[in-house]
Specification:
globular; three-stranded antiparallel β-sheet; 195 residues; alpha+beta; five-stranded antiparallel β-sheet; single chain
Amino acid sequence: MKKIAAALCLLLLLAAGDMAVARPAGGDTEVRLLACHGYGCNFRTMIPLTQQDLQAIRRAFAEYGKTAQGEREAVKKAVAIYEERTTQVIGVRDEPRMAFGRPKRKGQMDCTDESTNTQGVLRYLQGAGYLKFHRSGRPVVRGVFIDGRYPHWTAVMIDDKGGRWAVDSWYGAGGAEPDILPLKEWKKRGRGGRR
């Protein structure tokens, strides 16, 4: 019960804007983002994005960001860049999904960590002016045990027509591109640990 309460508090803070936001690291071109890890944000590490990371993000949006669909592809690339940098800074590659019963493992992330981190990337992208067709939303959960699914969180972005999109980075290992799909479709999934 304590873990559920901690996760809910964390997500309330995120929704209020107190967590996972970009912070200047000493210059206009340096960016640091919060990385939650260890399940339920037991560990917090500031991740400095390098100039190469920022250039790769700029290239992704220059190449793909001309349409809403293309912008979602660029978001996938940006999240993967952030996750790869997170792996390098923490020194541990996040395994796909999570190992139940093994909490507080440095570098490993449950869906609370992943959705918090991905929402932070979305907020950075929005604040930096990369998102032209979307804006950062609030994390959403699916599953309530009685429906045969574990609770599972995802980051969310909202397109300029009001469509909501799940940005779910939990299923892949650290550095993999997240799944981006309509939130309605995402909410129907998740039985038996399947995407």
